[in-house]
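In line with agreed milestones, work has continued on tokenised descriptions of protein folds. One protein thus recorded appears below exactly as we store it:

>
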Amino acid sequence: MSKKTAFQFAAVAGCVLALCGAAQADQWDEISQRKELKCGTFADVPPFAAPDPKTREMVGHDIDLCNALAKQLGVAAKVTPLSVEARVPEVKLGRVDVTVANLAYTKSRGEQIQFSDPYYVAKEMLAVKASDPGTAKADFKGKRLSSTKGSTSELSIKMNGSEPVTFQDTGSAFMAVQQNKSVGMVANTMTITKLVNQSKTSGVELKMIKEPMVLQPIGVGMKKDEPVLLSKVNGALYALEKSGELDRIWAKWLGPNTEYKMTRDEKVTPLADLKFELLP
């Protein structure tokens, strides 16, 4: 091999190694260097994340959690509003570093992305017309129930043996019940509580079935095979738990002094320590 050929081979090999190194770059290093955490949230699902009617700025529980998480990690938060069905794909594609959008652990999602330790356990609840004689989820097997598309609400409807009627937003799912396009709607406890309260003064009154459709651990979604980022996010969540910040954010948006009047009983807990029926 001539000196010129050897030099060219070495140069090419160096470039290949550099490209491989870039491809395998640690995501946490990238976040640290840019000093910014790209955080995906809901686009318009209050009280988690929605535009403020007055300022049009994004506000809500998950917005505050994104900011708190980024601050704990020593970087700034850049919030990116996402549709319900885009929460997992945007993480996989690397367009956001994390998804903080009431994201429940499911078998399918667990195969696509990795999750932090859950910071609370949510419940999917069913609301039907107050005049409906049904009292348990089994009473609605085979019936049409509305929900947002691509959500765990939709999955829970299928698991119940009911027929899902899906929409892009909860408002449309609610109107489907009002317009007799479905006999009920499924969403998280906070959303159902709010809509049931609203129905008492406007439209057809609804009631919430006390039995949850499913229980679901909620965590921060991240790209797979990023152990350092996972460790950093988990560490930040436990620190926010210890400082009481997670409780303060919850109380502000969902607590006893809000329209939802909910108590945060669960703390950040390893997924393996929880007992729940895994959604597909």
